[in-house]
Design a protein that fits this description.
This protein is an alpha+beta fold. The chain contains four helices and eleven strands.
Length: 230
């Protein structure tokens, strides 16, 4: 991820390790609750709610989402995942930092949690927009379908989009019997890149999917902090 500062101050250079770049930051954390998101992939992402008081982390709440954008619940069958989700928040509090030890057996969850907490801390410093890959999810329809997208941003621009649609908790695959759906799934990513926006034309014959994907791309842009003031 990259990010942009919203305050103009006399600042020192600080290396932001998790974001993989050198950024300008003063290290001051404003009190409040901040929401951060990890990089997303086909397996999902982690969302972190981080509370700051007197420049210290005092509370962390973590949620991990799966490949269709649903929160992993108590029925998720991986003991180490549940143990990590209970243990990691206190590690962040004790370290007062986003860098903590990986929880054994839950490496992916730990790494995504650190990325999400890092983004929350950067927001507490005043950063508002971020580059990287974010998962966007639409609201479900009455037929229990919803759009799931992965959108990659570079310097605030949409550079890559992957479109999926879930039905009853499963992604539609190549066996889904609707040609226009597959055509739209292939054609529309470039539309979003060219428009650099979530509002594009409806693909003829795939109106519902088109609308779900536009809503999901909007959600990804919101996670990246690109819809300030909208």
């Amino acid at each position: 991820m990259k990010f942009k500062k919203i305050l103009v101050l006399t600042l020192a250079l600080a290396v932001v390790l998790g974001m993989g770049m050198v950024a300008v930051a003063d290290g001051h954390l404003e009190d409040g609750e901040y929401v951060g998101y990890s990089q997303a992939n086909e397996r999902g992402y982690v969302e972190a709610h981080v509370t700051i008081e007197d420049e210290a982390i005092v509370a962390v709440d973590l949620i991990e989402y799966n490949d269709v954008g649903e929160a992993k619940g108590e029925d998720y069958g991986w003991d180490e995942f549940h143990e990590a989700m209970e243990e990691l928040p206190q590690r962040f509090i004790d370290a007062n930092d986003y860098e903590v030890d990986i929880y054994t057996g839950a490496t992916s969850t730990s790494e995504k949690a650190m990325e999400a907490v890092e983004m929350a801390l950067l927001k507490a410093e005043g950063y508002e927009s971020f580059d990287g890959t974010f998962m966007g999810v639409s609201e479900p329809t009455e037929r229990d379908n919803w759009g799931v997208v992965l959108v990659t941003f570079e310097e605030g621009d949409i550079v890559e989009v992957k479109l999926e649609e879930a039905a009853e908790g499963e992604l539609k695959d190549e066996d889904y019997d609707w040609d226009e759906f597959h055509e739209a799934q292939e054609a529309m990513p470039e539309w979003f890149v060219e428009a650099n926006d979530y509002e594009v034309d409806i693909y003829t014959g795939a109106t519902s999917s088109s609308e779900l994907w536009m809503e999901a791309v909007r959600d990804a842009m919101s996670k990246a902090g690109l819809l300030q003031g909208e």
